[in-house]
Amino acid sequence: MERRSLRVGLGWDVHPLVEGRPLVLGGVRIPYEKGLFGHSDADVLIHALCDALLGAASLGDLGTLFPPSDPRLEGISSVYLLQEVMEEVRKRGWEVISVDSVIIAQGPRLAPHVGEMKQRLAPILGISPEDISIKPKSPEGLGSLGRDEGIGAMVVVLLMRP
Ligand code: MG
To answer: How far is the CA of 42 from the centre of ligand 1 (A)?
Structure first.
């Protein structure tokens, strides 16, 4: 019988929306009057994805790998963080099978950008864009996310060790 090792990972993140910052989600610049505030470019989707990958591989979380106190990370693209995380995951023999995700955003309409996000993330993860699901959801005006004060993301990944 063929023996395979499979692991799921869960990631969650939220960042505040402020004026004077670019909005970057899934490595894609989204035209909007506000952007996410954080140490890096504050790409919540990639941060949640990194945490899901690290979780599945039992490697802790993004803050452990990249402490916010590290000045080299100031304004850095989260795509770089994802590349570093994937290197750690691959070193341990894991391959990504699939990604499912939810972006919780009241403000910008994200559906037109989902295809580009998948194209951006797929080669870094070593999978096809069809193996990535990104679902923008409205918080329906409820709570701080509903007041457009921030954007949240949740991600699950499936990893396989052949
Ligand atoms: Mg974050």
So the answer is: 6
